[in-house]
What we know:
This protein has helices at about 5-15, 15-30, 40-50, 55-70, 75-90, 95-105, 110-120, 130-150, 155-165, 175-185.
Amino acid sequence: MIRYSDEDIERAIKESKKGLALYKEIIKLFNNNVDVSKDETFQRLFNGFFITSPQKPDFYLAFYSYFETIKSNIPSFTEALEALYKNVNRVQTSFISKMFHVIDNNLPIYDGNMLKVLNIDRPKTWWSLIKKKERAIEIYNQIIQWYNDFVPSEEGQRWIILFDKEYSNSNITPIKKIDFILWKLGKK
């Protein structure tokens, strides 16, 4: 990953203002123990913040039903991929990571914008299902390791300090602060 200037990071942070408010509302609702399988406000906010392309109603039904069943006991990433695949017949790595992140804000998000910044290749659409799942799990573990290395690093701390300078009372995890920055950098 290239080193970004303070100006690049500060711009990404400033562009996160609207998203930060929406994210905090999602976490607040979740922490108030809403039934995510039924709460339309939670689903609308979650979809608006995390889901970039519309899905079919049966996907949302399966996704939010599964989300509700695991919200007090996160399974392994592999188990979650398998469980959601059985219901929607697709590998949904990004969706699983976003679900996991809402449950535990210290877990990173697997997203195409971040992968671009981190220079990680996504699974190819034409790969077999088994190969896609194996690669998705490798990537998620790679992302976790990247955060484990980056957050305490001098550069990671610089990003967090710049974020806190702009939003001193954000009350979000270091992982999410960096996530906001990565996402905005990846959109460029």
